[in-house]
What we know:
The protein is α/β, with parallel strands linked by helices. It has 2 domains: 40-103 and 288-375 and 548-608, FAD/NAD(P)-binding domain; 145-282 and 377-523. The strands form 5 sheets. It has a 7-stranded mixed beta sheet with strand order 8-7-16-17-18-15-19, sandwiched between helices. The longest helix has 21 residues, at 479-499.
Amino acid sequence: xxxxxxxCVALFVYILxxxxxxxxxxxxxxxxxxxxxxxxxxxxxxxxxxKQGFLSSKVPDNLDAVVIGxxxxxxxxxxxxxxxxxxxxxxxxxxxxxxxxxxxxxKGFEFDVGIxxxxxxxDHKPFRCMLDQLTDGQLLWEPLENPFDQVVLGPPENxxxxxxxxxxxxxxxxxxxxxxxxEKAIDEYMRLVKKxxxxxxxxxxLKLCPTLLANFLIYTGLAxxxxxxxxxxxxxxxxxxxxxxxxxxxxxxxxxxxxxxGNMPKDASFSMHSLLVTHYLNGAWYPKGGASEIAYHMIPIxxxxxxxxxxxxxxxxxLFNDAKxxxxxSVLKGQEEIHIRAPMVISNAGIYNTYEKLLPTxxxxxxxxxxxxxxVKHGEGGLSIFVGMTGTKEELGLKAxxxxxxxxxxFDELVEKYLNGEREESSKSxxxxxxxxxxxxxxxxQERSPGKSTLSLxxxxxxxxxxxxxxxxxxxxxxxYKELKQAFIDSALEVVMDVFPKITRDKIEYIDAGTPxxxxxYIGAPKGEIxxxxxxxxxxxxxxxxxxxxxxPLKNLYLTGQDVFLCGFAGALAGALTCGSAILNxxxxxxxxxxxxxxxxxxxxxxxE
Length: 609
C-alpha cells in the first residue's frame, strides 16, 4: 500500500508539473480580435495573400521555424508561434495556400475541396474562441439548417430518410420519434458517446507528458482506467451498436458519420466515432465566404510577426547538421535546390511523407522512426465530384444541409465489397455518397455568383484502381482514365438526380471528379487519403497515442496536423495545439479552455451592467 501511495503521489506531481503548469509564452494571453472588416470577394486581391509564389528573396531573415505544408495544421501552428513573436516561414508545394481548406474555380464556379461543415462553434466554446483568436475575429460562420444531416438508406423504391438534428436533447428526442420502442438504446448510445468525449483529455496528455510517465500510465493499465476514451477505443463501432439494438436501420443511423474519418464500422474505433458525434451535438457551421477565408485571415497574422507563407515551394528534403539535428529545408526551384536555414522544422506533410520522403536514407532507417511507421497504415483514398449548375438553391431544391446516402443499411458488407471489387464493377455502384451544396450554405454566394449553384459529392475509392495513371500529366492522364472517372461520375449523378429531383442534366454546366491520384498531386497525400493515417481501432491504442507525438526522434524536427492528433479540420487544429504546446512548453489545450472562460465571464459581466 505504501508503494502504491508513493507512485500515486509521484504521478500527481508529474501531472501538475508537465501538464497543468506552464512556463512558456501564451498565444492566447491577449484578445486580438478586431472589428470585422468588409469582405473581400475580388479573387485578384485574395490571391495576393493566398498565392504568394516562392522566391529566395521573399524568405525572411532570422527565421525561428519553417513549417512544411499550409494545411490548417501547419497554418494553425504558424499562427500560434507568430502570436508569441516567432518568425515563421510556411512552405506549400501547391500554387495556393490552405491545404484541404483551399478552393478552386472552374467555368465560373468556386469549389471547396475539404471543408463541408464544422461543429462545436457556439460562441462560448473553446474551439470557437481559439478560432476567433487565430483569425483576429475576421472569420465568420453561418449555421446550417436543423436538421443538418439527412441519412438516406435503401434503393429508390424503398428509400428511408432519417433527419439528424443538433441539440443535446433534441438529437436523441428526434431519433426516438423515428424509432419508437428504441428509447433505451438511444439513451445508452448518448450516454456512451458523451462519456467517451469527456475522456479525450488523456489523449492530449499522453502526447505531452514525459515518455516515462506515459509508459507508466500505459503499462499499468491506468490509461484505460483514467479515461473512458481509452477503455472504449479497442471496441469497434459495429460491435458497440450491435449490442445496443437489433434494429438495422437504427444501427445504421448510429453509425452513418463513419464517412468523416474513412473506416468501415467494423474497423472503426467507437471512441473516434463518439468524438465526431459529440463534435456536432451543438450544431454545424460553414465559413461565410467559403473555405478560402480560413487561410486568407490567418496568413496576415504570420506576416505581421515577420514570417511568410509561400506557395509553389516543394520541399524535397529536410536538412540536418552533423549532430543529426534538423536545421532547415531544401526547396526545389526548377532544377535548383535552395537551402533555407532555421533552428526548428515542423512538418504538416504527414508522417509518411516526413519520414519516407523528406529524411535522408540513413535517418529513415533509425529504429525509432521505423517503430512509428510500423504502428500506422495509410488511410482510404478519397473520391470527390464537383458539380456546377445553373439555378439558385430554391430552383434546384438545395438547402444548407448534408445528405448521407447509402444503398442499404449493411454498411460493412457494402463498403468491403466495393473497395475490394474490380474497379469497373465498383464504379457502377457506390455504396456511400456524401452530398452537400457549398453554395446553399454560404450566405455570400448569391452576391458572388448570382444564378449559379454547386454540389460537392464525396466518397472513397481504392488507390490501386488509379495507380497506373499516377505518373501521367494531371490535366491529361489519357482516355482510359477519363472513362473510369466518368463511370464514377455517372453512377453518383444517378443517385443525386433521384434524391434531388429538381436537378437535371440540362442544369449542369460543369462536372469533374478528383480521384486518389488527384489528391496525391494537389495535397501530397501518398495514397490519395484525405484523412491522413488510418483511423481504425489500432490508431487509438494508448501505445500509439503516446509514441506518435509532436517531438520526433530527431532533435528540432516536429510533427503537426492530422497525424499527430485526429483527422479533419478540428483534429488537425488539435494537432497544431499539441505541437505548439511541445514547442512553447505550455499546455495550449488548457489555455484555450481558459480563454473561453475569460470571454464568457466578460460577456456575462457586460450583460449584468
